Amino acid sequence: LGVTPDKPHKKSARITGDVMGKYHPHGDSSIYEAMVRMAQWWSYRHMLVDGHGNFGSMDGDGAAAQRYTEARMSKIALEMLRDINKNTVDFQDNYDGSEREPLVLPARFPNLLVNGA
């Protein structure tokens, strides 16, 4: 998707569309809501998304629409994918067989322990 920390931020709508088209064809709202949560410092101990724009507030204000925000992966999120090309995990076809996706992530970073479910 080209959203690594060394690249410029991309429009959230573009990221959401790419994810929906390649991996999750069940609507964009769940994808964007997950991305917003991963960009909120009060929701995650270590944010996985480096967001640019209005991603909500601690007071319960919602995030701006995805067409107004931009995002990329945080540096710590890269640790969850670092060994993805080293045959450390199994892959399967995506929903339509056009892409391959990992069954699990080869995380060097224990995200579930650090950030919770």
Automatic annotation (TrEMBL):
Designated gene of the protein: gyrA
Pfam families per the UniProt record, alphabetical: DNA_topoisoIV (PF00521)
Catalytic residue positions: Y68 (o-(5'-phospho-dna)-tyrosine intermediate)
Domain Topo IIA-type catalytic per the UniProt entry, residue ranges: 1-117
Stored PANTHER family: DNA GYRASE SUBUNIT A, CHLOROPLASTIC_MITOCHONDRIAL (PTHR43493:SF5), DNA GYRASE/TOPOISOMERASE SUBUNIT A (PTHR43493)
GO MF term (any one): DNA negative supercoiling activity
Family assignment from sequence similarity: Belongs to the type II topoisomerase GyrA/ParC subunit family.
GO cellular component labels: cytoplasm; DNA topoisomerase type II (double strand cut, ATP-hydrolyzing) complex
Keywords tagged on the record: DNA-binding, Isomerase, Topoisomerase
Protein name: DNA gyrase subunit A
GO biological process: one example: DNA topological change
Entry-linked InterPro entries: Topo_IIA-like_dom_sf, Topo_IIA_A/C_ab, Topo_IIA_dom_A, Type_II_DNA_Topoisomerases
Catalytic activity entry: ATP-dependent breakage, passage and rejoining of double-stranded DNA
